[in-house]
UniProtKB/TrEMBL annotation:
It comes from Brassica cretica (Mustard). It is found in: Cell membrane. PANTHER family: F3L24.34 PROTEIN (PTHR30509:SF34), P-HYDROXYBENZOIC ACID EFFLUX PUMP SUBUNIT-RELATED (PTHR30509). It comes from the Eukaryota. Keywords: Cell membrane, Membrane, Transmembrane, Transmembrane helix. The chain crosses the membrane at residues 12-31, 93-112, 124-146, 152-171, 374-394. Residues 386-513 form the Integral membrane bound transporter domain. It is a multi-pass membrane protein. This is Integral membrane bound transporter domain-containing protein.
Amino acid sequence: MRDTTCLERLSLALRTALACLIVSLTTLYGPKPLKNWATFPAFSYLTTILIWLSDAEPTYGEVLKCCVDVSYATFQTAAIMLVSVLVVGPASLGVSLVAPVAVAVASFIVAFPASTSLLTKRIAFGQIVLVYVTFAVFNGEVAHVFMLPVHVAASTALGAIASLLAVLLPFPRLAHSQMSKGCKLYAENALERLNLFVDVIMARDNTTAQVLIAKAASLSAAARHTLKDIKIHHERLAWERPDTRFLKKKQKHQGEKLKATEFLMRGMEIALGSCSSFPLGMSRDEVTNLLEAPRTHIAHEPASTLKPEDRLTWLPEAGSLSTTSLPVYFFRYCVELFRGDVSSVRQDSKRVDGLFTSKSFLDALSVWMARERFVFAFKCSISLGLAVLFGILYNKKNGYWSGLTVAISLVSGRQATLTVANSRLQGTAMGSVYGLLCCAVFQRLEEFRFLPLLPWIAATVFMRHSKVYGQPGGVTSAIAALLILGRRNYGAPTDFAITRIVEASIGLLCFVLGEVLVTPARASTLARAELKHCLDAVLDCIGSLVLCSEQKNMPLSDLRSKQAKLNSHVEALERLTSEALREPNVPFLKPLNAVSYNKVLVSLSKVSDLCLYVCDGLTNLSGAHPLDHVAHELKSFQEKLRSSVKCLEEMASTKTQARLQKELQKRKICHDVEAGTASNDNYLNMELGPSQDDAERFSVSFVKLLKEATEKTSGSTAEEVVKNETTLCLSSLGFCISRLMQETVCIMTEITHTT
């Protein structure tokens, strides 16, 4: 997998270098009429880099979509510029203080619509800076005013066309082929995990089993990344093949099948991770036959050689049922879902990323989106306006670069502002230094000065994937070198490089100022607030599960919607935690406890998955068996959890340390997730909220009821299959609810230790 990734990145690096080479050859050695039209070669390079070093790895469909976005941005900028010239006049736009105001107003107009993509906005921002700073540089005395947007459009089109040629030569890079590679890569990953599952079941001791389970978990993380790539490439198929818009059901089948496969693979992994002792008492041949159906399903082999009458013919004896055997039954349950004996995965696994569609939520979402659009537009307006103002004040002739630096940095959501600014500044400095060194080496061979660009552009593609620089550092380092080595007649390279670094610093300062003014809350603060929303969502899921257990034949749509809500909050917490970990430490502000929050995220993800497995079990039981005992135990657990969450809220509202110590003694709490250590050793035997004992008691009582049901059940051969399936579903349901309770307790333990 690692070799495949390196080859893919090398291919992208070569195509990116080819696109830049096309722009360089055109602007340096192309026909004179063409060079007279594309008078802003720097913006041609910038357009190319924004397309090829974006967050997603481009394919033909993606580049085609980017060309459409670039065209829309160009028409948008031309319309705004023409209106401003007719209303204000070129002479007024040439005033140094009027140009920044015009940039701010135009940026707000471009940024506010939600229908345009981020690339459209960034290209439009850059074009706006070019147009209005040009008016300021020439004091409004621009020859052929209405030709200015044409020159900007031609320069932008050159970068877009070069990108399109690079993705087609020497052979097209299609989303369909990338999707096929991703599916093959996922199948190899899943088969490797199945082999690990066999080794785990046959492990001689717990230590060996835990090592193998950890390896399977790392493969599972890689599989999730592969599935995300497959989803991205699937969305691009419509741009490569318009007919796929009318064949959505057929095209989505493969993606849904992979989602269902991963859903069951995660269940098998959870089951093995819950086993208390190894080996599990199964022979290798028995395990191999057991996993034949999943292996056939993943490898797309012909129908399984397993005879239909061999399915679900086993029934655990009442004496063999125990709390330690529940994970094994859940493992078998997931295997039977692969065989197609249970239909729930076709109903529920598609809903993993489901959205809750109540009218109140949609109304709240529309209000939130309107507010978010205004905040983003205001941030863009302030940042770009200030950057252009200070850039012109420092160096009027090179005032473009401060605004362009901000234009390629703005995003609609949150980002680690200081980290991004630092990466962009370092990338600008490195690219400029590389360009100056190449200028010194090729001082007497100025015609071939563009050749060292090719290896540097390739290097920036790999730099884009590094943890140190990331996408911001890779983009700015590529642009910095291109502006020095890929152009002519801009003055002394050293003077230009120094001036541009200063202008870029001005732009980044304005970028940071705009981010801080509009979104002053740190990601760590928001992560702590989002954790509270996650706990509330867990409570809602357990409450919905109680209702489903109490009422027979109750629709599970409420539980699914609560699980979808929990899943969305978990994803938000993951994003905020990742951003918070990239934030620099600030004195007098408590940093995020990375270890604790990562553990909480793992447990929350498992709780979200377990809710779906519970949906499976309840759907297959179809209300055939009363679950009053389950409802009673869950209701008791829910009340304990609610009181614990309420206590945490009261603690969070306690501001001073003295009041906090009083509250700790009052509530008998001695641990804080942010501190990571105990604060009072006098309460070591105290308890607050749910504990692992609750989950253990539930498992014991559930197994007791299951034994009674198994002993009483008897019937004909036809009823035997139904009996086996029901027993398997009940065993799996008991395991999932018990494990859900355990993971919830682990979450509360990480947040606040009960002693």
